[in-house]
Amino acid sequence: MDSNTPGGNAPNHFDNVACPFCGILCDDLEIGPTADGLKVLKNGCVKSVAGFERAFKEPKPQINGKDVSLSEAVAEAARLVKAAQLPLFGGLGTDVDGVRAVMSIADQAGGVVDHALSEGQYRNFRVLQTGGWVMTTLTEARNRADLFIVLGSDIQKIHPRFFERIVCNERSMFSDTPPKRTVVFLGEGLDQSEVKGSRIGEIVTLPAKGERLREILVAMRALAKGVPVQGDTIGELPRADVEDLVKRCSAASYGVMVWAPPSLAFPDADLTVQAAAEYIKDINLTSRFAGLSLGGNEGAVSAGAVCAWQSGYPLRVSFASGKPDYDTERYATANLLANKETDLVIWLASYTPDLAPPTTDVPMILLSTPALKPAKTPAVYIPIGTPGIEHDGLIVRCDNVVSLPLRKLRQSQLPRAADVLAQIQAAL
Amino acid sequence: MLIKLTGGKVYDPANGVDGVVRDIYIQNGRIVTPEPGAKVSSEYALNGKVVMAGGIDPHSHIGGGKVTIARMLMPEDHLGNEVERTALTRSGCGHAIPSTLTAGYRYAEMGYTAAFEPAMLPANARQAHMEMGDTPMIDKGAFVMLGSDDFFLRQLSGKADFSAMKDYIAWTMHAAQAIAVKVVNPGGISAFKFNQRQLNLDEKHVHYGVTPRDIIVNLARGLTELGVVHPLHIHGCNLGVPGGVETTLETIRGANGLPMHLTHIQFHSYDTEGDMKFSSGAARIADAVNANKNVSIDIGQVMFGQTCTASGDSMRQFVNTRSADPKKWVVMDIECDAGCGVVPFKYRDKSFVNALQWAIGLELFLMVNDPWRIFLTTDHPNGGPFTCYPHLIRLLMDKTFRQDVMKTINQDALKYSALATLDREYSLYEIAIMTRAGPAKSLGLKDRGHLAAGASADITVYDDNPDREAMFATPELVFKNGDLIVRNGKIIKVVNGATHVARPSYDKGIEKSLKQYFDDFHTVRMENFRLSDDEIINHGQGEVIVQPTGARTA
Predict the structure, then answer these.
(1) Would you state the pLDDT for residue A6?
(2) Could you give the 3-state DSSP secondary structure of residue A329?
């Protein structure tokens, strides 16, 4: 079968393009050429337009700010990696092959592996590792859910097409006249503007503070079980509103509680996720309900998944002892830098300029999209291609189930991160 | 370069060779009959050694989302079970759910040269292949799951033309790069999403109005008519339910002679006698398997110790969460396509239930007569990790050892099992059938699992140690495609195996309705749902081998 040509269009015009610029990986984009770049012709959003349409540049690699050849940069990078006591392979904004290459070189060089956005991911991983959960995926939620509860996350900002594709879709697998949906925003200042159209019934706004969500969820679980809960307010929400929400959850034929971990940026947010997970487990004793975790921008899900299947652990792993050593605190990027445990940072950011390396005096090898301008000149700089623009690749979606092929959309001299890392490893 | 393996005792059941001393020649990765006078460039003297084809595991959860969920769920499985990197091999870890690289190394070090992932969800096929791609040393392949996916259920419910259903089955095998098709709790994974908590063989799905029996019969017939060699791989209804034996027997009767493979049948062989309302139904199952030549099985033997179960059967796994040990678990509804449930388990030899599960598995092994229709599995990691196989083989080959172990387990359990009365000891020839020749034949691997000229030179050489556990745990030599990859149970060369697929023919017209269907309902386009060969080949890291498929009828 001719599965190698998903588009089958005229040259430089592409259908069914997967977008790697946020974790939900829309793959219905149509992209065409312009005189000096690419244009999103259909199904774009603010993130995909920024990513696909950015100016095309092919700068040269550099050592300490001076242009060099790729082989010189690779040789210098290898020298630095070899000399390092504990190199940190961070950032990890790359595709599956890029993470594979990171795992291989980190294993050989005795380094640490962590993703720039793993703090958000660990709000989930800690719950997975201690209690687990009942979860769903994008297509399941899109077709099945009659109740969405948005948990403290400004989804529109992180995933501009989530509501359009998963919540406001007019058609459903299970009915020609699918019932209207209720969407509850449980949280403060959450953008509801894209929740609209014929599928949307009621929109409920419960402006709870992030730090109070856990209390509300724990109370909901208690109320659902018939355990007495004191007070006229719960987490600063009127008690009646919380009781009403509990009723909605119990009555839903398939409720979905959605959160984007990066949004839950308050202390001990993992306990909020845990409270949600335990409540959802309870609901499932009698009716169906599931969690749906979003996030996973900048290739974070691919990094966590590949690291887990190759090392057993989802990031924050050190290979310094010759075998995987897991420590979610010690090997977190911020702590390694603060505690001066790492003496070399290899920072990988192939998708967006937003994944800037941390400000540090530790020497750095920067492998990044040319769009990224570091605040400080790195010891070695190697510009790399973006998977899904300058080269093919594979990437894992936010629900940790679906992965998508990314396609090369234009000719470029920019190398794949995986190939650069393999060259550095070969030179060790 | 001609390699000669001289003087070993060869067990090659596919060619009727039972412990005959003979030489084997390898050239260019294949077993050959050398030209007269051809020069041998290296020779291995194997006098007294046992020679078999490389082991083939036809049912082992080695790759795919649920396995990686299990890895993430269970750091305690890895702690203390780390594997250091060497000059040749990568680091890794894990006891029950090893990291991908470690799994590949351990299979090879145990004399296995192929393992098949039995529960690849179409929606998760890409990741399953990525993980198998990161599993070195061995050949791989996967069975794609159908039967709880919306498209098939609406075809069945809408009484679609049977030819279109076959097109869809075949299309899915191509799209997901599968060698076979599996059904898991037929319709039940979907029914659970509609809040049905069980779905018996003749119970209707509330939305589609079809029954598990309809699903099984249509998939089994479809695969037969498509010419797919491996029959429908069935994880039946009511896994782990006391009384499930009745469902299993009725499933066999309902096949009406259609080929079918009943997987991890141990979990589906529970009866309801005794004070605990839990007893062995193994004898009844074995009788039915013995009488129905269209049926093959694998066991899913339970081995004592900590493991983590990972199954597509979200409906049954949700019930099993009550027994989770440690108390954490994941259940997922996936893409209107399938589901999964990941639940840690500790099988205890002093537990009545666990001891009886162990005994039931062994009873089935010992009471099913035809080793060509029964395969040795623990349903890794669900009954226990695949690294238990040498121990399991000794239990089957050594009655004294078996009886010694029986003395250490819950004695009440043995009252509800006939295990104590069974004297059978498996021969090396029968073990070679059950772990090589049988799986290869069943999966349609034409050049694997045997040692005749033309076969791939996947060969394992064992010391003929009377302690069969020690013998099978540490092969002396393992060849993969003619390369010596393991010596004395340690890897000496790292290779990448191939991915085996089967490609029954289909009418491309199916893509027109599928395209519309994906556009209307899914979050992935049909064009991106399909996996290309290039993804598996991945810059020369992998290889796709298309195994033969019979002619499509109708």
Answers:
(1) 46
(2) coil
Find tokens 């403290």 and name the residue.
A152
Question: From the CA of B244, how many Å to the nearest CA of chain A?
Answer: 22
Fold of the domain built from segment(s) B52-491: TIM Barrel (3.20.20)
Q: Where are the domains of chain B?
A: 52-491
Q: Where are the alpha helices (DSSP H) in A171-326?
A: 213-225, 239-251, 269-283, 300-311
**Quick one: pLDDT at residue A10?**
57
Which CATH number does A122-293 carry? 3.40.228.10
Whether the predicted pLDDT of A9 surpasses 70: no
Pick the CATH number of A62-117+298-394+409-426 from 3.40.50.740, 1.10.390.10, 1.10.150.40, 3.40.1490.10: 3.40.50.740
Q: Is the pLDDT of residue A1 over 60?
A: no
Three-state DSSP at A258 gives strand
pLDDT at A8 over 80: no
Give the closest of B328, B333, B342 to A130, CB-based. Answer: B328
**Rounded Cα–Cα distance for residues B446 and B440 (Å):** 7
> pLDDT class for B72, splitting at 50, 70, 90?
very high
CA distance B144 to B546: 15
Compute the nearest-CA separation of B261 from chain A (Å). 27
Instruction: List chain B residues with CB under 8 Å of A16.
Output: 525, 527-528
Q: Is B314 on the interface with A (CB under 8 A)?
A: no
Quickly state the pLDDT bin for B39 (edges 50, 70, 90). very high
**Which among A125, A134, A319 has the least Cβ separation from residue B91?**
A319
Least Cα distance to B457 among B139, B123, B9, B47 occurs for B139
pLDDT value at residue B144: 98
SS3 of residue B426 by DSSP = coil
**CB distance A121 to A92 below 8 Å:** no
| Mean pLDDT value of segment A284-298 | 98
Residue found under tokens 């020069």: B39
Give CA B493 to chain center in angstroms.
26
Q: Is A284's CB within 8 Å of B531's CB? A: no
Type of residue found at B315: M
The arithmetic mean of pLDDT across residues B209-216, rounded, is 98
The whole-angstrom distance between B107's CA and the closest CA on chain A is: 16
Can you give the pLDDT at residue B148?
98
Task: Return the SS3 of B285.
Answer: helix
The reply to whether residue A128 touches residue B123, judged by beta carbons under 8 angstroms, is no
Q: Where in chain A is the domain with CATH 3.40.228.10?
A: 122-293
ipTM: 0.97
Q: Is the pLDDT of residue A36 over 90?
A: no
CA-nearest of A356, A358, A361, A359 to A340 is A361
Q: Find which of A170, A311, A404 to mutate to test the B interface (most B CBs within 10 Å of its CB).
A: A311
Helix boundaries (H) for A289-428: 300-311, 333-338, 417-426
Look up residue A416 and give its two tokens.
């794949």
**494-523 of B, contacting A, C-beta below 8 A:** 508, 520-523
Start-end of CATH 3.40.50.740 domains in chain A: 62-117+298-394+409-426
The neighbour count for residue A65, using CB atoms within 10 Å, is: 9
- Give the residues across from B186 on adjacent strands: none
pLDDT in tens, B416-444: 999 999 999 999 999 999 999 999 999 99
- Cβ-nearest to B100 among A18, A130, A309: A309
CA pair distance B63, B67, nearest whole angstrom:
6
Instruction: Identify from A328, A401, A419 which residue to disrupt to test chain B contact, counting B C-beta atoms within 10 A and taking the largest count.
Output: A401
Chain A touched by B99 (CB under 8 Å): yes
Q: A294 CA to chain B: closest CA distance, Å?
A: 14
Q: How many CB atoms lie within 10 A of CB A34?
A: 10
Can you tell me the distance from the alpha carbon of B336 to that of B145, in angstroms, rounded to the nearest whole number?
12
